Amino acid sequence: MKNKQIAGFLVCPQWLTDPKKAEPYIRQMAEDGYTAVDILLRVPQVNLYNGGEMLHQCLEKLTAMLHEHRLKAILDTDNLFWGYTFTKYHPECMQHQYHLEQVHVRKGHFDFQSATPPVSTHIHGYVELETVDFYLQDGDSFRHLEKDQCVWNWQNHLNGYQIKGQLPDSSFSGVMFACVTSRMTGLLDLSHPAFLKAQEEILDRLSDIPFDGFGWDEPGKGCGDPMFYRGGNGFLQLFRERCGYDLMDKIPYLAYFDDTSEAVKLRLDYYSTLAFVNFEAQRRHNDYAEKCYGRKLFFGTHQTWSGLISDLVAGVCDYFQMGKLLSAAWTDGSWEVDLRYIAFHLMLADSLREELGLEDAYYNDWGLSLPAVENMHFATRFKMLYHVNWFNIFYSDFSEHIVNYRLDPFRKESVSDRKILDEFDRFLNGMCADAPIGICYDWKSSAAAPKWLARLHYATVTNTVLSLTDSNLHGRFFSEDFLMKAVLCGKELVYGKNRFRAIILPDLYVISRAAWDKLCVLADQGFPIIFTGVPPMFTPDGTPLNREFANRLGMEAFQLQDLIQAYSETETLPGVNEWEKESYTFLYPAEVTTGKAVMDGEERVIAVQSANNGMVFITEADPRENLVNLLTPLIGTDDELYAEHAYSRWFTGEDPNEKILYFCACGRMADMSMLSSRLQGKPGGLTPRKARTFRAVYRNNAGILKICDGSWCAVKFQNDIVVEIIGDCQVHYDKI
After folding, report:
1. H-state helical runs in 357-450
2. Among residues 425, 411, 431, 430, which one has the least CA distance to residue 3?
């Protein structure tokens, strides 16, 4: 496609009866140079399940107008906005939310309160108590009480339930666990056969409208609290078939008994089933859509929600597997959060594209506060650094209280940014961004670990991403599937377009035996393998691995409790629902035996290097600068490159004699790179990034390149000689 950027609009309620009112917005999108449009229907009262002929005619006319303006039409069929209507007729498909409580029993009696799932009732309907399961603690385990072994009753109380009852043994005093099950009248159990049939019926009713593709916008959204677990009637049956036991018999392991083999296995069984549910529902949707239309379709949009933690809760955290369902890589984020999170999502989009062999990558960036133009300009420059394009969805009156693009100068400037992104696409002509550093992305570790550890991981891995970017040491995420297929070619680990000279494995609490063995082989061959954060402790079946890891590095083994103690010496554990801290300063314990200790100025062990191979364990929970210092000599180059207030990155293609060097202004103070952009302390309190120019000098054997007075430029080299330049900078080039 000549133009890559995708636009979209949320259907305004008045368009349902008069779709002609949408024509000015459609014409505007076409004039602004977009290539495809995503139609987002978010009017709960009129949805894909109950909209009938009126909605059918509206979508038919919207699609016809899009095609008249040479725009491709993509319909979002996200079930969130038709689920409430559907569950009125199919209550068996309601999603269940499980909340686990530790209850103290005194002489057979108990009385406790439990919170209801935090959902938006104006969209999702009502929350109702379904049932409560009870479990008596038995040493380091528990036993599930039969339904008739305990008498209980309940009542609504504020934002939750009060639950009172008694056990048959009136003399018992001690600890009991309770699983409080709520059912959600607006959220669906996507594994239920009735739901899977309903999505096919919706596609059947729409099959005469010539859509070019379909999207599922954030399929897992609805309740993002990590202390609530999703399920339902269909889910429980599927879990039993896949795992060979009943989830409800062992569900306390989801929240208690951390760092035990039983908890690791149960949590991975649960989250892998939840991921399978989302993957299978969307796969069946997409396959059926292509069967109805008899041709290949375009499938989007972003399946990610708002970050690693929420995506884990939603069951869409297996990004590389979920990405196989889409026609392009998609992620979602906002200008209103720290830059480290934007960097994480852009790197993730780039990584999905390259590992899965997709043509394009998209990022849906949005803002909540004004003014927003400078933030948008910075986001555009930053997206080009990762070669990620724009999904700009707000082209109607209805924008869910998010910054729209209708008023100048925002509208005019967004058109200019769209042109820049397309110009950059054409200039690259298929070249790929260089990424010499690989970062292992493994959702299973976050799933199996305690929730506070998953929260810590998201903060530190995003810090790692931004630290690399700030140092112009660029990386890319990779999956375990990549690791198993990659081969060592000289000093590079290669598979597909990825060529890594070192890899980082952050917080790899769980790792498969096959992957661990592959890492050991690579390390023995001298390839740099750097572990940060929590080291490997278990295989997915719950087999302990911590001693084997420690022996490899030449250090004493330690347990999760040792990490908690080290953490607690300097700060409290992260709250599972708190916004992540900006940085973490504690060190994990490391008693060195046969390994080589790396000390800091305080004579603390900040890293352990194996004496016999290429493995390194960095003991800092949030290593950032020290990690960059370790990687820099491994990724060295003979060329000289200096950039002030700027990012830079190389792009290369199939022709080894042709390459592109991209520069863009940081738009923030260089010595405040890791300072929170949320200086007001909350999302929506972003300090705008101001316009900024930069200076850069690049020298090779053929000449000297000097750049100044602008915000971005891209320079094409042929045989090390500058042949073409785009951007808004002053460029001076002197051949040697």
Report:
1. 373-386, 410-428, 443-448
2. 425
Tokens, residue 529: 């393998």
What are the backbone dihedrals phi and psi of residue 384, each rounded to the nearest 5 degrees, phi first? Answer: -65, -30
Query: What is this structure's pTM?
Result: 0.95
Instruction: Check the CA dihedral 48-49-51-55 and report its sign.
Output: positive
How far, CA to CA in Å, does 32 sit from each of 9, 414, 417, 514, 658? 14, 9, 10, 50, 32
Closest CA to 248 of 145, 381, 393, 328: 145
Around Cβ 450, how many Cβ atoms within 10 Å? 19
Let me know if 629 is exposed, middle or buried by CB neighbors in 10 A (0-12, 13-18, 19+).
exposed
Residue type, 251: I
Condensed to tens digits (0 to 9), the pLDDT of residues 607-655 reads 999 998 889 999 998 999 899 999 999 887 777 898 888 999 999 999 9
Number of Cβ atoms within 10 Å of the Cβ of 734:
10
Look up tokens 């070192």; give the residue. Answer: 502
Average pLDDT over residues 485-514: 96
Per-residue model confidence (pLDDT) at position 674: 47
Closest CA to 567 of 645, 511, 507: 507
Is the bond leading into 193 cis (omega within 30 degrees of zero)?
no
The CA–CA distances, whole Å, from 697 to 119, 433, 640, 665, 723 equal 53, 20, 8, 14, 17
What is the signed CA dihedral for 165, 167, 169, 172, rounded to 10 degrees? Answer: -80
DSSP 268: H
Per-residue pLDDT tens digits for 221-230:
888 899 999 9
Q: What is the pLDDT of residues 361-395, one digit of tens each?
A: 999 888 777 778 888 899 999 999 999 999 987 78
Nearest partner of 42 among 328, 438, 396, judged by Cα: 396
**CA-angle at 425, arms to 424 and 428, nearest 5°:** 85
125 or 11: which leads in pLDDT: 11
**CB contact at 8 A, 163 and 152:** yes
Beta carbons of 702 and 735 less than 8 angstroms apart: yes
Q: Is 50 helix (H, G, I), strand (E, B) or coil?
A: coil
3-state secondary structure of 190: coil
| Chain centre distance of CA 664 | 25
What is the model's pLDDT at position 688? 59
Distance (Å, rounded) from C-alpha 131 to C-alpha 662? 58
**C-alpha count within 13 angstroms, C-beta hemisphere, residue 544:** 10
The Cα–Cα gap between 395 and 391 comes to 11
Distance, CA of 74 to CA of 72 (rounded, Å): 7
pLDDT higher than 80, residue 406? no
The residue ranking higher by pLDDT, 412 or 687, is 412
Task: Please provide the DSSP assignment of 483-513 as one string.
Answer: HHH-EEETTEEEETTEEESEEEEET--B--H
Can you say whether residue 630 is alpha, beta or left, with left for phi > 0 and alpha for psi between -120 and 50 degrees?
alpha
Mean pLDDT for the chain overall: 91
- The token pair at 173 is 């005093």
Cα 702 to Cα 428, 635, 637, 641, 695, distances in angstroms: 22, 22, 15, 14, 20
Distance CA 537, CA 546 (A): 4
